[in-house]
TrEMBL record:
Keyword Ribosomal protein: no
PANTHER family: RNA-GUIDED DNA ENDONUCLEASE RV2885C-RELATED, TRANSPOSASE
Lineage, broadest ranks: Bacteria, Thermotogati, Deinococcota, Deinococci, Thermales
Domain of life: Bacteria
Record domain Probable transposase IS891/IS1136/IS1341: where: 159-257
One GO BP annotation of this record: transposition
Protein name: Transposase, IS605 OrfB family
InterPro entries found in the cross-reference section: Cas12f1-like_TNB (IPR010095), RNA-guided_DNA_endo/Transpos (IPR051399), Transposase (IPR001959)
Record NCBIfam families: guided_TnpB, IS200/IS605 family accessory protein TnpB-like domain
């Protein structure tokens, strides 16, 4: 997760905990008690019709403290219920505990985290990889975190960090356009192309497997507990695979850039509603294709490296000739082929779209930081000669 505030980003990093046996028992008891506190606060909120946090606090705080929750954990339980605002939530499962800066602290000297539990304050070792260690050392502050227990009994802490984003150096960088798709997940105007073939094949395999399980779940005689668990595992595995694949892809793209470069993306909204796909398989892939997630990861990794990100108008990027400027639906001969009917220029259609995206970033002279992330004024002091068009 990532949020922007000026040149500071708020990131969430998951770290594995290595608790001793007594510490694991304390964590388990804390999760159970926090769940009971949340369920009690939710029940009172529904009975009174009061989900506003300040008023709910006065209704349940003393009772939560009497149950054994610390002051700050009681406040976090009330905050979690208050965010529901009378929604369909029936009850909470013992899955997580929310911590703030007063109930959680990090010490990188010995790579441990201190957490408030029902058995007092415990300092628990962390199991860190190089990527996690780099972000934790780079962070300006730790804002809190969420304690969770995995399906195999492992404990994790999702730390919320404030990380300073380097201000991109002005002038001299390249403008690189990126066209996103399914057959080619990403095509760069610099000439690099990243295939989406494996991601597509894996998602289709999960689609077939889930269809088999779904058909059994629809028959009451075969709706076993093990089958329900299998359904949940399949969804989790697919989500983890997609997330891992997108992280790897966006890292490879950002590694091709240098601080001061400008990454140009299409400002796509309502993509699924505007585009129709024929066939069950095509609709499934189109509706589940992670365009938003891909742009999200690409943007935050680029900003961490000092690369500016701009968004341009997506209209006709795959139909406009980058050589003569002629726009026509006929130019896009197929999914892969672009051939201008006016000047005869011919090239890969995805590459043509990425070049047009980069050229629009150059022409507009300013860009948007994207929906929901505020505005970032940019000055693109570059000329069209940064885009090299090969001979047809």
């Amino acid at each position: 997760m990532i949020r922007y505030s000026g040149f500071v980003q708020t990131l969430t990093v998951r770290c594995t905990l290595k608790p001793a046996l007594e510490q694991a028992e304390a964590l388990e008891a804390t999760v159970q008690l926090f769940m009971e506190g949340c369920n009690y606060a939710l029940r009172v909120a529904k009975e009174r019709g009061e989900f506003r946090r300040f008023r709910l606090h006065h209704l349940v705080y003393k009772d939560l403290r009497a149950m054994g929750l610390s002051a700050n954990l009681a406040v976090q339980a009330i905050a979690r219920v208050g965010r529901k605002k009378g929604s369909r939530a029936k009850f909470y499962q013992p899955t997580s505990v929310a911590y703030d800066q007063r109930t959680l602290s990090l010490r990188m000297a010995d790579e441990t985290v201190s957490l408030t539990t029902v058995k007092g304050r415990l300092r628990i070792p962390l199991k860190l990889g190089n990527y996690q260690r780099h972000l934790l050392r780079k962070a300006k502050s730790v804002q809190g975190g969420v304690l969770t227990k995995g399906p195999k009994g492992k404990w994790y802490i999702h730390l919320t960090l404030r990380v300073e984003t380097p201000e991109p150096p002005g002038g001299g960088g390249r403008v690189v356009g990126v066209d996103l798709g399914q057959k080619a997940l990403a095509t760069l105007s610099a000439g690099h192309r990243f295939s989406g073939g494996r991601l597509k094949s894996v998602r289709l395999r999960y689609l077939q497997k889930r269809a088999e399980v779904r058909s059994k779940l629809d028959r009451p005689s075969e709706r076993t507990r093990g089958l329900k668990r299998l359904w949940a595992r399949l969804s989790g595995r697919e989500a983890r695979f997609v997330n891992s694949a997108l992280h790897a892809l966006t890292r490879r793209i950002v590694d091709l850039l240098e601080p001061g470069d400008i990454l140009a993306l299409e400002h796509l909204t309502g993509l699924r509603g505007r585009t129709s796909k024929r066939g069950r398989k095509g609709r499934h892939l189109h509706n589940l294709w992670p365009y938003g997630r891909l742009r999200f990861l690409l943007e935050y990794k680029a900003r961490l490296k000092g690369v500016r990100v701009v968004y341009v108008d997506p209209r006709h990027t795959s139909r406009e000739c980058p050589r003569c400027g002629h726009v026509s639906k006929v130019n896009r001969r197929s999914q892969a082929l672009f051939r201008c009917e006016a000047c005869g220029f011919q090239h890969n259609a995805d590459w043509v779209a990425s070049v047009n995206i980069a050229r629009r970033a150059l022409a507009q002279g300013a860009g948007s930081a994207g929906p929901g992330h505020g505005q970032l004024a940019l000055v693109l002091g570059h000329r069209l000669k940064h885009l090299h068009l090969p001979a047809s």
